[in-house]
Amino acid sequence: MARNTQVAADHNAPPVTRTLAKFVASHPSRGWGDAVDHEAHRTFLNWAGCAVGAARHEAAQAALDAAAMLQPAPQAAILGRSERVDMASAALVNGISSHTFDFDDTHLKTIIHPAGPVASALLALAEVTGASGRQVIDALVLGIDVSCRLGNAMYPDHYDRGWHITGSTGQMGAAAGCARLLGLDEEKTAMALGIAASQPVGMREQFGTMTKPFHPGAAARAGLLSALLAKHGFTASPKAIEAPRGYVQVVSTKCDWNEATDELGRRFEISFNTYKPFACGIVIHPSIDAAVQLRARGVNAADVERIELRVHSLVLELTGKKEPQDGLQGKFSVYHGVAAGLIFGRAGEGEYDDAIVTREDVTALRRKVVATVDDSIAEAAADVTAVMKDGRREHVFVEHAIGSLERPMTDADLEGKFRSLAEPVIGAARAGRLIAACRGLGAAPGVAGLVAAARP
């Protein structure tokens, strides 16, 4: 009876699909402050660095090999590589590579990595349509707003049910962004959102495998295809997001419609985007930050008897792998993150190399980490104590890790991260040109210069 009452009540849901479609189609270009525009460029820069950095990873190669079997037309580029494929395959592969290192942007309220699906779809489409850089930035802001607002409406229930929220909301953001880039009107934008609403992708079971980065790639491709279908007259339910048997209510028991539409056009979710200094799941970052601080205090791994780690239950739920066997699994091991932070003083992509994850000294220190659940500690915090062999105790409590909204990465930090990812793939000179192209995208006549700079 209660279930039927819930469904009946939900017939009164507001017209979210139409509201978001009107917003995407009609919001003025650069209709936000300088801070939002700056964040959009930071988001694009971070996305591009992550995509280039993983361009040679076996996951990207496997995806490109599969796409090549479809005999695609050479429409769009794969960042960090010389191959060109059709725009749908480019959206897929760039989306995969941008998430492979787990180093991409994060909307902390929902744990969505919004740029992967949206930027990957937009760059591919912009190459084909000849869109200006300003049009790409506008579409990026609006597309990310749609995906994160829908995430706000469903989180945490949707995530707790097992959905990988980056993939399962990313197709909505990609569809919105591509609809904007194509100049679709309100009606066709609503159709694009409706088509995308039938294509959520991604289960958390896949974390630690190549299929996890497949999720944002598949979402990028689905969103792009949805907008193209809508452009040519393909139809969908005009209530696909909010209907009792529509997107939100099928994949979540939490349906906070106000989160989707409140302050629309005044509050932009990209303003709450953050960037990772460590190449792993965001919930590990406070623990790594603490380990790096312990190292700076003079704690030497060889002198450690054990490391006492107290964290929120979600940390161990998501990243409790005690004995990761390769780099991908290491990204879901808070034990490895702490060991890397203490031994190396960092946890970039290099510290998640297969050889590092299985190295003897790293494995030995990892086994000295004793993790305890303490839900009085916030998800974004960590309490870490190094107990030394001589009995000394060194304690660090991290309330907000570096890279959070409270301790954001600076523009210089982001450039350093970008160079560490891109230079091994495309060289220092091209990496510098790509940084400049990303930073100046909003004023660029198109994306051709950016794409050229990203070639190896």
Question: Key terms for this structure?
Answer:
disordered N terminus; 456 residues; 2 domains; 22 helices; alpha+beta; four-stranded mixed sheet; 54% helix
Q: What can you see in these coordinates?
A:
The protein is α+β, with helices and mostly antiparallel strands and 456 residues long. The chain folds into two domains: 2-275 and 434-453, Orthogonal Bundle (2-methylcitrate dehydratase PrpD), CATH 1.10.4100; 282-398, 2-methylcitrate dehydratase PrpD (60s Ribosomal Protein L30, Chain: A, 2-Layer Sandwich), CATH 3.30.1330. Helices cover 54% and strands 7% of the residues. The chain contains 22 helices and eight strands. The protein has a four-stranded mixed β-sheet with strand order 6-5-7-8. It has a two-stranded antiparallel sheet with strand order 1-2. Strands 3-4 form a two-stranded antiparallel sheet. Helix 2 crosses helix 10 (186-197) and helix 7 runs antiparallel to helix 9. The longest helix is centred in the first third of the chain and has 22 residues, at 133-154. It is globular and about 70 Å long. Mean pLDDT is 96; it is low at 1-9.
| Overall average pLDDT | 96
> How are the strands of the biggest sheet laid out side by side?
6-5-7-8
Could you tell me the radius of gyration in angstroms?
A: 22 Å
The percentage of residues in β strands lies in 5-15%
User: Do you know the CATH architecture of the largest domain?
Assistant: Orthogonal Bundle
Name of the CATH class of the largest domain: Mainly Alpha
| Major sheet summary line | 4 strands, mixed
Summed up:
This protein is of the alpha+beta class and 456 residues long.
